[in-house]
């Protein structure tokens, strides 16, 4: 399976203090050194809406480049795609929010308009040769409208799949999902869009994130998002705390013999460094508890 490291984008976007461009580039450099090969590095949204990510072009100008490394940028509109193309990203991630209320607060449009935007952006990105991910946000619940019907999410999957993305991601934006719902939705994507990779993005707000991640993999998901240190959250969703932590997820995957190509010890060290940079210990537990066995050897 594959991991997408999202700390530079989703991880830092909710921090109360601005993080320097050099620090963001160093975080990306450390992630690459640890073995991350897909990194959601930047967001091409309004600097007024998300000031933490206003330096997307400067970050992209400083990241280490290699053929095997793929950098993604979050894109909401045509202007964002223009910026992403100019900055030289390899992938775009376009978000379609599952409810109108959250969509208006997050993107200033209804869900229907969000789908239409995705269709236009997908066509342009295809022409430009970019990898295209569409993320259905609030797929497991909305902070304003409450429960989100699994039937409705399946319908959204059908709609967004028509634009032929390489990947469809389910995002538990506020951390309310449970393994049973995860299994059903991942299975539904495989039926509706069998030629599309399934990706999942979980928050550990209510301590179900890691169980959800394993349920997703067990149901056939191909890709998981994770954030070094477990930092992150959505600035438009009340109490949407951090993503699942890359190091904590890696520990479980490594112990179960699931290969990712990412070095656990290096990610742990980066998580501790992030805590120093941000002035607070990160939510990830492994940096405090340590790996087991301490040598990093896999269990017999």
UniProtKB/TrEMBL annotation:
GO molecular function: hydroxymethylglutaryl-CoA lyase activity; metal ion binding
InterPro entries named in the record: Aldolase_TIM, HMGL, PYR_CT
Short name of any one Pfam family annotated for the protein: HMGL-like
Keyword Metal-binding among UniProt keywords: yes
GO biological process, one term: L-leucine catabolic process
Key word Chaperone present: no
Domain Pyruvate carboxyltransferase: 1-268
Entry similarity comment: Belongs to the HMG-CoA lyase family.
Name recorded for this polypeptide: Hydroxymethylglutaryl-CoA lyase
